[in-house]
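Recall that a protein's primary structure is simply its ordered list of amino acids. Everything else, from secondary elements to tertiary packing, is in principle encoded there. The following example makes that idea concrete.
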Amino acid sequence: MEAQLGVLGGSGLYRMADLEDVEEVRITTPFGEPSDTITIGTLQGLRIAFLPRHGRAHQHSPSRVPARANFWALKALGVRWVVSVSAVGSLREEVRPLDFVIPDQVVDRTVRRPRSFFDEEGPVVHVPLDEPFCPELRAALVQAAIAAGPRVHERGTYLCIEGPQFSTKAESHLYRSWEMDIIGMTAMPEVRLAREAELCFAILALVTDYDVWHTAEEPVSVSVVLERLHQNVEAAQRTLRELIPRLEQLPGTCACSSALQNAIVTRPEAVPRDVRERYALLLGKYLPVES
């Protein structure tokens, strides 16, 4: 069972429409079970692995999403590209509810989530994150979103907070003073893990609200978020359908697939065989077990 495109569904997107030849798989990883069963199916000739980030019953809070297991599982299925669909709030007047944003930068304000596959053991790895999203996949996603019809912002900075609570007004105004554009709870550690797994990664951010800073708008709440998401889910599905033919046209010259090549600092002889075996999915081409 293999797939080329991985889709992480966020709040309101718990399944992929129009998939054919569907099968469901469970994958065990060194980091436990993924958020839920992974649905693999074919859409326009491309095999897609769909995983609801919070689980089908939305049982995982942002802080408890098993992100390492999710990305390990997608990598194990042969996925090359990953699109994360995420609900976000707007920190800018011009970024309106029901707009789409394809962020090009991210700021991490989370405090209690594993940030790396190599936190507890393994070699020391420092991947570059100056450009946190795959430039090729992000550009294709921008084109797909524009073709799908909603109002699209082609770039923006995503501020990721820990949650699960929404912001205070003071925090919201502070983030605006930092010139952040959108705010959410799931971009991190996904950005970090995608790079360590050498996967091309981009976010399709669905704007649901103005957080709590806007004096003329209702403050963000679960009911507001879900209502707006239900209005936007079909546009998100159309965007993913528009993306598929564009993936075949990508030049494949991005550095995502070799992110670890010059990032492993530990000397090879200092990485034990059992660690090499355990992390072979990620490290095998740089630290083979037999050496």
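The domain at 5-283 is CATH 3.40.50.1580 (Rossmann fold). The chain has a mean pLDDT of 93.
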